[in-house]
Amino acid sequence: MANIGDLWDDVARAVAFLSRIPVPQRHFVSHDGRLDRAVRAFPVAGMLIALPAATVAALLVAFQMSALFAAFIVIAVQVLATGALHEDGLGDTADGFGGGRDRESALAIMKDSRVGTYGALALILSVGLRVSALASFLPLLMPIGAGLTLLAVAALTRAAMVWHWSSLPPARSDGVAASAGTPDPKATSTALGSAVLSALLLFYMASVPAIAVLLALAVFALTARAFERIASRKLGGHTGDTIGATQQLTEIATLGTLALTI
Question: Which of the listed residues 88, 138, 168, 242 has the most CB atoms within 10 Å of its CB?
């Protein structure tokens, strides 16, 4: 029972870290703010955070709403649930990587709350690509399949955050990610393994073609790895912004692959 209680606490802490969803304070009693072990629950937390959007997607597909309208609503619900945390990370990362002449200037730009040209374009492309991908394949799935597919993508992309976080050192010592600690290797393996297994099961239940699943997983992994290398070259490590950007980039890549293959 203690292990179950600890796991549930980790899920609650992960939900609080990854979204704006209120979490009971009892899950944070005597907690030091570190997430080195709680990252194991990121895929589960991702699915819980995506559950409202998945439910909306299933309902809109069931009522045969316009595919484009349904896709915009799904993305809107996702943004409301997360408080646009991951989008904020993507925008700041794009500004820093695009406008920074060196590591120090890139980090300074990323810390600035203002949105620049690179960040604005990245956000426009992120929303546009995700909406167009969803509009492409959601009508091809059964209502429950549409919802399950979104849950699978949510599990994978939150695991990608753990992958990025654990693969690189902190780029700054005073950042949110640095203060939250370094993911425990066992917790990282649990997050990645549970995300892939959950996604495979959910894709199977959604009747997504096997070739689409395999290609989506491959593109997902390649995208996470490629961005890890870019962040290492630009910053020499990760920040909270690059962790959020990882979620966005892998979601775009995974949804785009599904749109091309379903």
Answer: 242
Q: What does the DSSP assignment read for the chain?
A: -HHHHHHHHHHHHHHHHHS-----GGGGTT--S--TTGGGGHHHHHHHHHHHHHHHHHHHHHTT--HHHHHHHHHHHHHHHHTTHHHHHHHHHHHHHHH-SSHHHHHHHHH--S--HHHHHHHHHHHHHHHHHHHHHGGGS-HHHHHHHHHHHHHHHHHHHHHHHHHS-BSSTTSHHHHT-PPPHHHHHHHHHHHHHHHHHHHHHTT--HHHHHHHHHHHHHHHHHHHHHHHHHHSSB-HHHHHHHHHHHHHHHHHHHHHH-
Q: What is the pLDDT of residues 214-244, one digit of tens each?
A: 999 999 999 999 999 999 999 999 999 999 9
